[in-house]
Amino acid sequence: MNDHAALLEEIALEMRETERWTGRSALSPQTMSAVAKVKREAFVSPGSEPAAYENRPLPIGHGQTISQPFIVALMTELLDLQPDDRVLEVGTGSGYQAAVLAEVVDKVHSIEVIPELAARAAVALAVQGYANVELRTGDGGLGWPNRAPFDAIVVTAAALEVPSALLEQLRAGGRMMIPVGPRRGDQELLLITKDAAGNVTRRSVLPVAFVPLTGSACD
Phi then psi for 40, rounded to 5 degrees? Predict the structure, then answer.
């Protein structure tokens, strides 16, 4: 068994072990296929390729990480994406989560606050052929107003609270995955849904540990 296949089996096991919290015992075929197709080694920092298929976050510089594959898969799964959904990712980082999303939907909009990471992710995504990812350097907590509303939003860094701009830009019927909590304290992964009337509900999915979301909307 190669490293990528072993990672997929580990993710499947972790899905079963966390079912009591997540409500999902397995990834959907579309999410599993997306994780299987994306080459994680293309998105890690140079020198980290031997660890690319370990089920853990890895440093990518500037105090940031490429997320744990299980968490990337789970966040993608819980968004219940359809191919024509308009998706916003806040925190491009290495581009790995964007690539997984791009395997599921036709268009991904992704924002990264650190210019050097945004440039590196743009190259990695282009080399891997993900022309359906639109990138922008900026404050992700403010969202992307001229691309809104979004059917789904995924935030890849922990906010102290859910940015109001992201809630406003979430379409009625939409879903958001976001880690919330202090920089060095208890964080929880939240699933946020907005109904047709604009009412918002929040459900805690799992305890998590993410790097902090930065930007003016998060100060």
Answer: -65, -30
pTM over 0.90, yes/no: yes
**66 in Cβ contact with 60 (< 8 Å):** yes
Q: What is the CA radius of gyration of the chain?
A: 16
Q: CATH topology for 3-218?
A: Rossmann fold (3.40.50)
Q: Cα angle at 156 between 191 and 72, to 5 degrees?
A: 75
CA distance 91 to 210: 11
Residues designated catalytic: 67
Separation CA 176–CA 162 (nearest Å) = 10
Tens digit of pLDDT for each residue in 141-174? 999 999 999 999 999 999 999 999 999 999 999 9
Of 48, 49, 15, which is closest to residue 32 (Cα–Cα)?
Answer: 15
For the chain, the structural domain boundaries read: 3-218
Cα distance between residue 205 and residue 202, in whole Å? 9
